[in-house]
Amino acid sequence: MQKSSTHDLSVAIIGAGMSGIAAAIKFGEQGYRDIVIFEKADRLGGTWRENTYPGLSCDVPSHLYSYAFEPNPNWSHLFSPGAEIQAYFESVAKKYDVERLMRFNKEVTSAEFENGRWHLTMHDGERTSADIVIAATGILHQPAYPDIDGIEDFAGASFHTARWDHSAALDNHRVGIIGTGSTAMQIVPAIIDRVASLSLFQRTPQWVFGIENPAYTEAERAEFNASPAKMKALYDHWAYRFNYRFGRAVIGDKVIADRIAELCLANLDENVHDSELKKKLTPNYVAACKRLIMSDEFYPAIQKPNAHLVTTAVEQIEKDGVRTKDGTLHKLDVLALATGFKAHAFMRPMRLVGRHGTTLEQAWAATNMTHRSISIPDMPNFFILIGPNSPVGNFPLILVAERQLDYIKQLIEPVRTGQCRAVAPQRAATEQFQQDVREAMQGTIWMSGCSSWYLDKNGIPVTWPWDFDRFEADMSAPDFSEYEMIA
Ligand code: N01
User: Fold this and answer.
1) Which of 93, 206, 326, 387 is the most exposed place for a label (fewest CB within 10 A)?
2) What is the 3-state secondary structure (H, E, C) of the chain?
């Protein structure tokens, strides 16, 4: 039977992280009453629940890494620590009363579209159904373990950074870290003064933008509390810098990109004193091709006497440590794998079966193909937040999720008002979008030759190749001619 009122439409949100919480709040505000959030873990928070490593913070300023509808006057730092961010999401979920919608320890293992509805199955066999599914499953949540011989042989504590083992003693121990992404660069300064030695196994050096992380004073926080306008001004200040400066550099504004490279090189030059070390830390690819590191702490930390930057490739892992290709055994008590995430899994391994029996594996066999990052042909009423080709490398993710939600809400309005039962993107429109993306991607920094988690299995970045204005315009209102209205 065709649904005809808001109250009848049920919404299943998968994932209780940043975007899932926003989805529940925004759909609730729109009048939806039947909303459930399925969360595989035992509490909310997504990235900020899973990552607890020492030094964890967000490399986007906190006043910008906040929901636009819920600014936080009490952020402690320009880049606040991870635990504080986790607490922020918990407090927002409480304040907007969406925690009661969350069902924890419920991993959705399959979603099948049948008779106009989605039928979800949980890992424990529970089955339920919903009219609309929002995959708020995040991007960086499945750890990527390195394929290194002997990894199982290590006798000490060894773990991925997103599974940090807090029972492993660091103080006065020999610690090794494999990888030099944003994660490792935060851990090194956080632990260097505690450990006996730290060996950082670097395959590729990073561009490091030297930026301080000052604490907000009590007076500043009081001012933010007293003046929402002041906080809004700060939000706008950082949004401008990200969206209109950095955001332009990565899509081809050479003047800004060159300036970023210049500032990073000056940072290296001024803060690393040994010429051999400087050479090892100098990248040979274009700045911001990989995610730029924001830190004024990494260079001082890596120059401490107990820090060792190892640039010889790793041969294998042994019982006592890591052996590099020159035959040296780097003896370790603890080994942290800062080797990143399977960034292209999205909602997988969940089984997704849409119309005509189309599976996600079939739909995404060639590439993770979406229409405007949000929807997939033959997957009616199924929407992804921060999906493939979302602006993950150039704009703040919360802002991105909020804009996508505003778009999705408009997109399903014909379903809500009973004009049709479901919406799905037209295949031709999706292919056109994909072609436009591929063409626009040519001039971007991500195509300049470095490897990074932005690139898919075909070596094509799954980022947003246009500027923020284009994203805002695209997300402002759906063009319904790009969609199929399914009766
Ligand atoms: O992971 P990464 P990450 N042998 O994929 C190396 C976000 N984040 O967890 O560069 C040896 O960037 C690999 O080497 P190479 C942020 O968006 C945000 O650090 O491929 N090394 C690389 O150095 C970030 O971009 C915050 O040569 C191996 C590293 O491991 C994203 O998460 C904080 C290897 C992986 O780097 C991911 O960052 C932290 C091998 N076999 C993270 N395999 C915020 O502040 C991989 N590597 C919001």
Assistant:
1) 326
2) CCCCCHHHCEEEEECCCHHHHHHHHHHHHHCCCEEEEECCCCCCCCHHHHCCCCCCECCCCCCCCCCCCCCCCCCCECCCEHHHHHHHHHHHHHHCCCHHHEECCCCEEEEEEECCEEEEEECCCCEEEECEEEECCCCCCCECCCCCCCHHHCCCEEEEHHHCCCCCCCCCCEEEEECCCHHHHHHHHHHCCCCCEEEEECCCCCCEECCCCCECCHHHHHHHHHCHHHHHHHHHHHHHHHHHHHHHHCCCCHHHHHHHHHHHHHHHHHHCCCHHHHHHCCCCCCCCCCCCEECCCHHHHHCCCCEEEECCCEEEEECCEEEECCCCEEECCEEEECCCECCCCCCCCCEEECHHHCEHHHHCCCCCCCECCCECCCCCCEEECCCCCCCCCCCCHHHHHHHHHHHHHHHCHHHHCCCCCEEEECHHHHHHHHHHHHHHHCCCHHHCCCCCCCECCCCCECCCCCCHHHHHHHHHCCCHHHEEEEC
